[in-house]
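> forwarded from #structure-qc
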C-alpha cells in the first residue's frame, strides 16, 4: 500500500479518495443543508454538511458544529439542533479550515391563531398579525382514538408523533376520528377504537361486545382527549384540524369492504339504549346518519359538535373538518354543520376556520364542485397528483394525498403543490402498526421519507418567498410549475430536471439563482441572471430540481 493511499485512509474527510485510481482529491468547499431553517421552541432539525471535491465528487462529512447563539438553539455533534428560545442563530460547520454557515430561526413555541383566510392571498391562512401561514404535515389514523387488535387497544405514542412532525419541519396535522367502536372497511383485522364518542352505560351488550351506548352522554374522556391532543400540538407550533365525523365509519366503501364499521356504530339500533335507528332502510349502512333525513340523529350530532367546540374554543391552533369522505348525499348535512359551527362560535371568544373534504366515492357521485360550492373556509379536493389544478384562491386548498390517491406520492408532489398554490397534507402510514391502514404499506420504504422530508424543504422555501403576494404563474416557466411574485422572485419546479425557460420580463436589474436538489437537500449557487426578458437556465444535477430566483 502506498504512503498516499495510507494517508487517504487516515484523513478521508479532509482530502477524499478517488474510487477508481486511488488518487487523492482535495476538499474544496463545505455546504450545510437545509438552508434558512425555521423551527419552534423545543423543535428539532437535523443539519448535515456535504463536501465538494476538486474532482467533482461530493459526500457527507463529519464536521465540528457550532451555534452562534446557544440560548436560541443548541446543536450536538451529530448536527441535530434544538430550539431553546425565540430568536435567530447561525449554524456553523467547520472541517480542515473550511467553513459554512446558515441561519436558524426559532419561532415562539405556541401556534399563533386562530387562523383566518388571508385577505391578501386567500390561497392561504394568516395569523392574527396578518402573516401568511403555509401549512404542511403528515396525518395518521390514531391521532385521537387509539386503535389496535386488542381491547382496549395499545396507547398511541402521540408525543413521539409530534416530535416526528417537528423533525420534518411540519406544522400541521389532522386529528383523525372514528365514530365506530370496532371494525373498519380498510382491514380484515378485528380491532377496537378508544375512547368512544358516547358513554357506554348499558343495559345490554352491543355488537362489538361492549355495553350499549347512551347517546345522551357525549363521552368526557373523548372530549378531554381531543382537547389535550390539540394543546400538545399547539405548544409545539403545530396546527390541527379536528375531524368531527367520518364517512368511513358509517359504511363500507367501494374497493374497501374488509369489515363493516356500521355494525359497531353508536347509531346502529343494536348498540344504543335510546331507540335510535340510523339505518331505516335496513341495508347495513348508516349513510342516512350523514343526511338530514333523521331529525333525532341530527339533533344528537348538533349536541356533540357543540360539545367539541366547548372543549377547544379557547385554543389558537384549531380548525375543523366536518367529515372525512362522506357520500355526496351528505352535502346538505355538511353545509348544515358548517353553519352550526359558525353560529355556535359566533357568541364565543374565538372563531375557527371550517373545512370540507371531497365526497367519496368520487365517481360517479362526489365532485370537487360539492366542496367548492360550500361556504367552507378550506377544502381538500380530488385530482391527478401528477398534474394538480392551479389553486384559484376561491378557497384555501389542502393538497391531501388522502383524497388524491391514498398512501401515495413521491418527492415531486410537495413541490407541484407549493408551486400551484396549495398547502399539503400527506396520508402517512407512519409506523405501520396494526389497526386501520394499508397492509401493503412498508414503513422502511425510503420513498415515504423522501416525501416527508421534501414537505419540510418546501415549507422552508414557502417561508422565504413573499407568500402574501405570490401567485401560481405556470405561464412564466416552461416547466409549467412556478410560484411567483411577478417582477421580484420566482420559485420554479422542474419535474424532469434539465433546463427551464423563465420569463423575467417584469424584472429590473439582476437576480440571484439558487438551485435546490430535492434528492439530497443540497443547494447550489447558480450565479445571477438579468431581468427584462426570458432566461434559459440548466440544473447543475440530474433528477427533479427546484430553482429559486430572487433579489
Amino acid at each position: 500500500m502506498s504512503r498516499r493511499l495510507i494517508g487517504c485512509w487516515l484523513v478521508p474527510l479532509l482530502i477524499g479518495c478517488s474510487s477508481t485510481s486511488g488518487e487523492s482529491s482535495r476538499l474544496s468547499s463545505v455546504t450545510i443543508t437545509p438552508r434558512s431553517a425555521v423551527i419552534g421552541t423545543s423543535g428539532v432539525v437535523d443539519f448535515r454538511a456535504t463536501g465538494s471535491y476538486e474532482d467533482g465528487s461530493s459526500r457527507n462529512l463529519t464536521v465540528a458544529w457550532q451555534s452562534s447563539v446557544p440560548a436560541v438553539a443548541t446543536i450536538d455533534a451529530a448536527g441535530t439542533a434544538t430550539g431553546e428560545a425565540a430568536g435567530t442563530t447561525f449554524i456553523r460547520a467547520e472541517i480542515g479550515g473550511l467553513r459554512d454557515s446558515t441561519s436558524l430561526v426559532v419561532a415562539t413555541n405556541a401556534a399563533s391563531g386562530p387562523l383566518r383566510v388571508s385577505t391578501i392571498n386567500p390561497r392561504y391562512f394568516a395569523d392574527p398579525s396578518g402573516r401568511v401561514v403555509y401549512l404542511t404535515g403528515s396525518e395518521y389514523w390514531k391521532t385521537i382514538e387509539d386503535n389496535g387488535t386488542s381491547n382496549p387497544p395499545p396507547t398511541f405514542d402521540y408525543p413521539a408523533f409530534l416530535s416526528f412532525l417537528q423533525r420534518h419541519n411540519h406544522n400541521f396535522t389532522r386529528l383523525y376520528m372514528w365514530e365506530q367502536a370496532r371494525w373498519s372497511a380498510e382491514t380484515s383485522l378485528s380491532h377496537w377504537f378508544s375512547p368512544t364518542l358516547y358513554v357506554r352505560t348499558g343495559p345490554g351488550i352491543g355488537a362489538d361486545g361492549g355495553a350499549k351506548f347512551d347517546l345522551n352522554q357525549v363521552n368526557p374522556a373523548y372530549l378531554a382527549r381531543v382537547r389535550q391532543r390539540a394543546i400538545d400540538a399547539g405548544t409545539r407550533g403545530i396546527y390541527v384540524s379536528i375531524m368531527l365525523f367520518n364517512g368511513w365509519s358509517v359504511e363500507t366503501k367501494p374497493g374497501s369492504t374488509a369489515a363493516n364499521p356500521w355494525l359497531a356504530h353508536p347509531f346502529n339500533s343494536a348498540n344504543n339504549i335510546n331507540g335510535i335507528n340510523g339505518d331505516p332502510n335496513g341495508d347495513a349502512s348508516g349513510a342516512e346518519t350523514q343526511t338530514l333525513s333523521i331529525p333525532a340523529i341530527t339533533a344528537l350530532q348538533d349536541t356533540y359538535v357543540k360539545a367539541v367546540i366547548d372543549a377547544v374554543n379557547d385554543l389558537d391552533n384549531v380548525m375543523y373538518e366536518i367529515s372525512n369522505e362522506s357520500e355526496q348525499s351528505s352535502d346538505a348535512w355538511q353545509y348544515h354543520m358548517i353553519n352550526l359551527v359558525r353560529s355556535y362560535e359566533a357568541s364565543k371568544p374565538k372563531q375557527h376556520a371550517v373545512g370540507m373534504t371531497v365526497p367519496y366515492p368520487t365517481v360517479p357521485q362526489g365532485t370537487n364542485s360539492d366542496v367548492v360550492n360550500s361556504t367552507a373556509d378550506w377544502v381538500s379536493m380530488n385530482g391527478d397528483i401528477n398534474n394538480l389544478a392551479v389553486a384559484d384562491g376561491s378557497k384555501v386548498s389542502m393538497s391531501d394525498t388522502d383524497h388524491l390517491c391514498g398512501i401515495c406520492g413521491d418527492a415531486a408532489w410537495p413541490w407541484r403543490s407549493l408551486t400551484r398554490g396549495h398547502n399539503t397534507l400527506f396520508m402517512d402510514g407512519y409506523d405501520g402498526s396494526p389497526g386501520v391502514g394499508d397492509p401493503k404499506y412498508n414503513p422502511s420504504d425510503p420513498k415515504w421519507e423522501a416525501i416527508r422530508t421534501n414537505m419540510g424543504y418546501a415549507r422552508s422555501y414557502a417561508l422565504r418567498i413573499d407568500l402574501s403576494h405570490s401567485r401560481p404563474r405556470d405561464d412564466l416557466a416552461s416547466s409549467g410549475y412556478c410560484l411567483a411574485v411577478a417582477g421580484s422572485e420566482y420559485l420554479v419546479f422542474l419535474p424532469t430536471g434539465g433546463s427551464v425557460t423563465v420569463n423575467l420580463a417584469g424584472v429590473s436589474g439582476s437576480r440571484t439563482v439558487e438551485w435546490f436538489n430535492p434528492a439530497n437537500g443540497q443547494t447550489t449557487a447558480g450565479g445571477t441572471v438579468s431581468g427584462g426578458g426570458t432566461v434559459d437556465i440548466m440544473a447543475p444535477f440530474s433528477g427533479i430540481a427546484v430553482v429559486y430566483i430572487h433579489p
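QC bot note: The first helix runs from residue 3 to 10. The mean pLDDT is 92.
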